[in-house]
Design brief:
The protein is α+β, with helices and mostly antiparallel strands. The protein folds into 3 domains: about 80 residues; about 130 residues, Jelly Rolls (Sandwich); about 70 residues, Phage tail protein beta-alpha-beta fold (3-Layer(bab) Sandwich). The chain is about 25% helix and about 30% strand. It has 8 helices and 18 strands. Strand 10 and strand 11 form a beta hairpin. Helix 3 packs across helix 6. The chain is globular and about 60 Å long. It comes from Flavivirga aquimarina. Keywords: Membrane, Transmembrane, Transmembrane helix.
Length: about 300
């Protein structure tokens, strides 16, 4: 029997069979020693994101209350073992969040109640608490966005991704956290605190024109950059200074195409270039010229050779 979100929802609502209850409680017992990698504050936020406001939406019997308390006691286990890495961070449909999404090739501008403005890049999901206010400024991102956060020294603005947590008071920065890709933040103005959810003691303070990158082993590296390049997509401009593997992923998202590469070794080569309002054809020609590559377009598929 596979432990999944549907089964755990049944467990919370007291609808599991005796066999299902036995399996779930054995799973919980076996996983109780998983380290709690979240602080108390982070665990509360993650629990809100993953589980929704269960107490407001469910009126459990005594048996359900017992199950609820036990399951909540393992919220960190569920967050770590089951839910971090989902495309969105919602667990129940009842979760009190407003969802904003962008399609492939689409960008979107959102203004929040506190005056903050968020520019979403293609193929991104942003969750904003329905209780978002000047006192509660918490959002969750899967994808890429450029943030212009209204200043409020008393009420931090928090952005949670599948692997990181960023806390700001009032600043401008870009944050990229696409699934199965590196997470990185580039700061334009102000100051931010950036840390790994897996290793919360591993954190960095980021200053203007600095970039932090979260690696697969949860270490954080910091380097100096020109921050304006990294939000150029908000002005329909493209800046690249990375491997062709990542360049091609960006092109696929922006132009809604599929790129296939015959010689996989070229994917590790670094391409650096700046393009202002490029068409797909012009972009491919310039990359091909610099990297000595050829391409062939067949409908929505591009062959690189």
């Amino acid at each position: 029997m596979k432990i999944n979100s549907q089964l755990l929802e049944k467990y919370v609502n007291g609808k599991c069979s005796k066999e299902e209850i036995a399996v779930i409680e054995l799973w919980l017992e076996n996983n109780k020693d998983i380290p709690n990698v979240l602080s108390e504050e982070e665990l509360q936020f993650e629990s809100d994101l993953m589980w929704g406001d269960i107490s407001k939406n469910i009126k459990p019997s005594k048996q359900k209350k017992k199950a609820y308390k036990k399951l909540i006691s393992y919220a960190s286990v569920a967050c770590v073992a089951l839910f971090i890495g989902l495309i969105t961070f919602q667990f129940f449909l009842k979760t009190p969040f407003t969802t904003y999404e962008t399609l492939v090739g689409e960008t979107k501008r959102i203004q929040l109640d506190d005056g903050s403005v968020i520019h979403m890049n293609a193929s991104s999901v942003l969750l904003v608490s329905k209780e978002f206010s000047k006192k509660n400024r918490e959002v969750s991102l899967n994808g890429e966005a450029y943030f212009e956060i209204a200043k409020d020294s008393l009420h931090p603005f928090t952005i949670t991704t599948k692997e990181s947590k960023t806390t700001v008071l009032g600043t401008k920065f870009s944050l990229s956290a696409y699934p199965n890709e590196r997470t990185y933040l580039t700061l334009n103005e102000g100051k931010v605190s950036f840390k790994s959810l897996e290793e919360p003691t591993n954190s960095k303070i980021v200053l203007p024109n600095q970039q932090v990158i979260l690696s697969e082993n949860y270490s954080i590296t910091k380097k100096d950059v020109n921050a304006n390049f990294y939000n150029s997509w908000t002005k329909n401009e493209l800046f690249f200074n990375e491997s062709l593997r990542n360049v091609f992923k960006d092109i696929e998202r922006k132009y809604n195409v599929k790129i296939q590469v015959n010689n996989k070794s070229v994917l590790n080569q670094v391409y650096k270039g700046y393009h202002k309002s490029p068409t797909l054809e012009n972009l491919l020609k310039k990359i091909g010229f610099v990297m000595k590559l050829k391409y062939k377009k067949n409908g929505d598929t591009i062959m690189i050779y």
